[in-house]
Amino acid sequence: MAYARARTLTIEAIEASGKKITVYGWVRLRRDHGKLIFLDIRDRTGIIQAVVNPKVSQEAYKTAQTLRAEDVVEIAGKVNKRPESAVKAELETGTIELEASSIEIISKAETLPFDMGANELNLELPTLLDYRSIALRHPKIAAIFKIQETITGSFRNTLKKEGFTEIFVPTIVPSATEGGAEVFPLDYYDKKAYLAQSPQLYKQIMVSIYERVFTIAHAYRAEPSITTRHLSEYLSLDVEFGFIDNFEELMDMAEKIVVNLLKDVEEKNKKELSLFGANIPKIKSKIPKMKMREAQDLVFKMTGVDHRSEPDLDPSDEKELCKWANEKYGAPFVFVTHYPTSKRPFYTMPDSSNPEYTLSFDMLGFTEEWITGGQRINDYNMLVENMKKRKINPSLFEIYLQAFKYGMPPEGGFAMGLERITKDLLGLLNIREASLFPRDMERVDERLSKSEK
Amino acid sequence: MAYARARTLTIEAIEASGKKITVYGWVRLRRDHGKLIFLDIRDRTGIIQAVVNPKVSQEAYKTAQTLRAEDVVEIAGKVNKRPESAVKAELETGTIELEASSIEIISKAETLPFDMGANELNLELPTLLDYRSIALRHPKIAAIFKIQETITGSFRNTLKKEGFTEIFVPTIVPSATEGGAEVFPLDYYDKKAYLAQSPQLYKQIMVSIYERVFTIAHAYRAEPSITTRHLSEYLSLDVEFGFIDNFEELMDMAEKIVVNLLKDVEEKNKKELSLFGANIPKIKSKIPKMKMREAQDLVFKMTGVDHRSEPDLDPSDEKELCKWANEKYGAPFVFVTHYPTSKRPFYTMPDSSNPEYTLSFDMLGFTEEWITGGQRINDYNMLVENMKKRKINPSLFEIYLQAFKYGMPPEGGFAMGLERITKDLLGLLNIREASLFPRDMERVDERLSKSEK
Question: What is the pTM of this model?
Fold first, then answer.
């Protein structure tokens, strides 16, 4: 094909009042109003309304009568200011409309399996996923991943300013990174390998090269779980840095990232947030910190629920603590520190003043864990001993251990899951909605039961 | 630990002449010169020379005598200007040195298995990889991945300016993306899944959502090959966009990315490039274009080697063509277009004027393929027919096909491998050197034969 005319993006049409332009896009909606047909045309910058009047072009009108949602079209016409009474405030191009003088169909769509025209796409999740490639076109769903782009961009910008290097580490690994059996095995030529549960060990190694590193990495969890909180493949935003003076520094960096991230989403995604009626909280003072045991005490005092002898926080505890932080500090974020040694991975630094507990932390956000991290064991002998204590074979981790054998400063880091943060910011009900093509026990694009046939 | 004094980065020491500072880093080198000990200290910003004089501090001198390469230290001292004759031009901090008044060992290193002090690390690749975590600390090896960071950053910046959205697509897929058997199978719960050979199908789907998308994605190739050109896991820089007016637009975008990338590496990585004596070529005029059959003719004319009836270019042809472009246009880049339909994947758009050939292209760079791409089939029926012709079962690709069934504009895109570009820019001999932790048939960190034991 060759386009007859230069393209004007729908967002540019706002500045083209009185001019003749050509727009290209998808028919989002067709409304027949007696003698006029209205078309909402979607392109990458937004939506514009075209008015098709047979008095302007009989031919364009005839074509418009045949149009279906998601047809791809080229529409030429004149940009007119709308009368005051017809201005649509919720549309960026709401002050203008396009008076169509010609319409070409570039690609014809079949009839959609469901209506995509409304502001809400009220479908059950399985339907949303069975028709993922169509559902993603809905502006409200497409908005989710524009927000993710802001989050990863903000994460990257904050860290670059702090002297971090972006790295890319492998996802095929020789053994389970974090211990445990929840790992996907892989036929690697005639051997076995695994999908990385996290970039943890590699980012730690890289501290001895660049001191400060971050990576945006796919991570894989084979938990046989179909909860609304679990994905088999997710995006982990990972940070690690050396020469920390103390454990607090890690939380300061995590806080800086989150403060900037909230600000950036708020500023750059007004349009997307408005589709969800989402309000981004503002962190006004330092995020509060407390030890896990103190957190359990607090929950007990507030609710009477006694989890004080549990080795970890319960999801209901996390919810209570966020609520408490929101009421007391105006934002639903709280750092909980010093989780028990038994509940943290082998590389976690114990608290020297009480080695039953670790220099670890979670940052709770909204209702649940947003960030998990801590100081790591940087002493080679201590690390090897700790692995042995946990029945982990050090000889499977030689490349990792090298980094500690040959000089490693005090270091630590943390990780946050992109999908979970997105879900919370937008108030999504299921984490799958925050993954373009979510993988779980039951689905890899198609439902797995179906692909058997 | 708690640091006694605020840290000065080695690069900041340049501006601290006459002042007392404390630096933290790794001992890169110790040289004993009679009554003085010289230490090269490496941190994330560079290297500084510390002079340890027993007349300044007997204690620091004693500690310095025990230091080994890669020990992590804290050194306090006064920054002195070097006498003119002792200025080291090749070192950013070469005009100053640090007169050590105290040295603390933060983390002790074992004796290195090889000398890391020289400018070159003359080791065989297997040794480099057996000791990967140490070898990466060598400034010349560490430089490789700083350049990769520039490449990915440049790629992202160019595309963001062109209205592209960054996306993250899955790497666990239901079937072989590009056809062929060279795919890693995965135990996915009680089913089979595969590792993505490329983000191809997903980026195409995403054109119907954002029109213009890019992704930096891990891709996996199970080729049973141990050539210097092949990695089992690599990073693919992928671009896809819709509403293309013609096939040429794709090459224009690819060229824009490469021009910016070369400029950015040249500007931002002077220090790293100098370690390799690498000269970045400048693209002075438009990159030349020719059809594959013309390219074969040209090679025949230049060399007498007749590959004119071959269905694809040979590696030796690619080398010749790059040499030709370099001589004629001053840069070793050339677009070769219209590869035979039989040699391109099912989604490639045939040339309507001769459907034996496709609207595909490779951009050859240096000596080999840098970028591969083309226009895609955007018509649903044509796509399904093409799959059937190639014995690909369309019912395995329902989510993909949805994108075309419901309106898809003319579109295309391309992909480039990060490691290959890095290798060529720096003149590395083996692509494994351009991967932090390379995966191949024989190795996943450890040699696979070894991990059997």
Answer: 0.97
